[in-house]
């Protein structure tokens, strides 16, 4: 009987630990990955200037996105943004900035650096689309060279060196610094007309934000 009670206690303790871990993980994710946007956006006037953005000569509406390549909500948001660009080709422009959540996404930082390396070599769009299509990343190391080769990068040695040296660390940290200054701690985060939406937006929500009169 004592042995049976002992085993029961072990099972109960184990279940309690697992449940606690799941709850903590859920709460942590909830603070950093934001599936739904708030009803009312927050005014973040001046964020474009802080990011070093210049006035658009074509007077397009800027859609600023803070993102993480390992964030599933960012992946879904990307699909929506592509629809927005298709619907408003002459009216909007998308500007992406990095906010990798290292503590829960171990490959996000290198994915962000890789995006900047690919941009330098003229392959940002191909890299961006390819990496966002990855449902999972290899743990603990992703083969970035294979990804670069797959999208057609010819200067593979340059790309690999760029990744190994984390060449764009300062740029990524600058993005993080601006995000922190304006109270952005989770992804995706979208800014339209100086208004911050902390969470995923539907096509209809973005359309409303674009069409609304200031």
Topology of helices and strands:
Elements (H helix, E strand, L loop, with lengths): L1 H31 L9 E2 L3 H4 L10 E7 L4 H16 L4 E7 L9 H13 L3 H10 L10 H7 L5 H9 L4 H13 L7 E4 L2 E4 L4 H9 L3
Parallel strand pairs: 2-3
Antiparallel strand pairs: 1-5, 2-4, 4-5
Helix pairs in contact: 4-5, 4-7, 6-7
Notable traits:
214 residues, alpha+beta, Glutaredoxin, 2 domains, five-stranded mixed sheet
Short description:
With 214 residues, the chain is of the alpha+beta class. The chain contains nine helices and five strands.
Low-confidence runs: 18-31
Domain count: 2
CATH superfamily of the largest domain, please? Glutaredoxin
Order of helices and strands: HEHEHEHHHHHEEH
Q: What is the first-to-last residue Cα distance?
A: 74 Å
Q: C-alpha Rg, in Å?
A: 21 Å
Q: CATH topology of the largest domain, anyone?
A: Glutaredoxin
What would the average pLDDT be, to the nearest integer? 86
What helical percentage do the residues reach? 40-55%
**What is the CATH architecture annotation of the largest domain?**
3-Layer(aba) Sandwich
Strand content: 5-15%
Spatial strand order of the main sheet: 1-5-4-2-3
- Please state the overall shape, judged from the principal axes of the Cα atoms: globular
């Amino acid at each position: 009987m004592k042995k049976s009670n002992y085993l029961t206690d072990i099972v109960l303790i184990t279940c309690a630990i697992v449940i606690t871990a799941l709850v903590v993980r859920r709460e942590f994710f909830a603070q950093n990955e934001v599936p739904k946007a708030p009803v009312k956006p927050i005014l973040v006037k001046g964020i474009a200037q802080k990011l070093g953005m210049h006035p658009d000569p074509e007077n397009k509406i800027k859609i600023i996105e803070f993102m993480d390549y390992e964030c599933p909500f960012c992946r879904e948001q990307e699909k929506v943004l592509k629809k927005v660009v298709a619907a408003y080709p002459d009216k909007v422009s998308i500007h992406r900035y990095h906010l990798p959540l290292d503590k829960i996404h171990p490959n996000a930082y290198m994915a962000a650096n890789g995006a900047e390396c690919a941009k330098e070599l003229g392959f940002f769009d191909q890299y961006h689309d390819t990496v966002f299509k990855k449902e999972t990343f290899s743990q603990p190391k992703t083969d970035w060279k294979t990804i670069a080769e797959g999208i057609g990068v010819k200067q593979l040695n340059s790309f690999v060196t760029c990744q190994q040296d984390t060449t764009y660390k300062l740029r990524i940290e600058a993005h993080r610094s601006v995000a922190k200054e304006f109270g952005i701690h989770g992804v995706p985060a979208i800014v339209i007309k100086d208004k911050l939406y902390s969470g995923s937006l539907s096509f209809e929500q973005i359309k409303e934000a674009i069409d609304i009169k200031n």
